[in-house]
TrEMBL record:
InterPro entries, alphabetized: Aldose_1/G6P_1-epimerase (IPR008183), Gal_mutarotase_sf_dom (IPR011013), GH-type_carb-bd (IPR014718)
GO annotation, cellular component aspect: cytoplasm
Pfam families with a match to the protein in the record: Aldose_epim
Coiled coil spans: none
GO biological process, one term: carbohydrate metabolic process
Molecular function GO terms recorded: carbohydrate binding; glucose-6-phosphate 1-epimerase activity
Listed SUPFAM superfamilies: Galactose mutarotase-like
Protein name in the entry: Glucose-6-phosphate 1-epimerase
Species annotation: Aegilops tauschii subsp. strangulata
Domain of life: Eukaryota
Amino acid sequence: MTYRFEFRLRVALGPKGDLFLTSRIRNTNTDGKPFSFTFAYHTYFSVSDISEVRIEGLETMDYFDNLKGKERFTEQGDALVFESEIDKVYLDTPPKIAIIDHEKKRTFVLRKDGLPDAVVWNPWERRSKTILDFGDEEYKHMLCVEPAAVEKPITLKPGEEWKGRLELSAVPSSYYSGQLDPDKVLHG
Ligand SMILES: O=P(O)(O)OC[C@H]1O[C@@H](O)[C@H](O)[C@@H](O)[C@@H]1O
């Protein structure tokens, strides 16, 4: 089935280097029909060493595990850490998520709106080798955290518009330096 829609992406850089991405999708069907879609910003973050980074903001969240037949689980531990392939869709996530890179003394802060879910993906060693445009060792230095609307597709009637906003900031500090209170990052 084909649909007419308009997609607008606004990319803006703030004075401190913050990146603002605003997507707008409008149903421009002339036949009166609604349409549904899912959406994700496939944002790849550069990290020092995947085994040393952690994500705060997703602990205790429910997720679908794409590596286990999309079964639903609940995250138990503290911050998320990584030691093998991951492809999970976290559901109803908070508006702020932090990727803490202790070695680089840098934290990425994601602020999102209109994007309830968050995909977390790293192909790790074995799968990396099957991805043509992905170097065999690159998985060590990247992490995808993708603000998304995937669990519940968005449905737009003709004329209706959806907006999904993402703000990315890199904070030149670390959790341990004391300059960055994780609680303030996530809830401030
Ligand atoms: O290569 P892309 O489009 O950035 O996608 C990478 C990954 O993105 C994730 O959203 C998917 O859950 C993975 O299965 C996928 O492989």
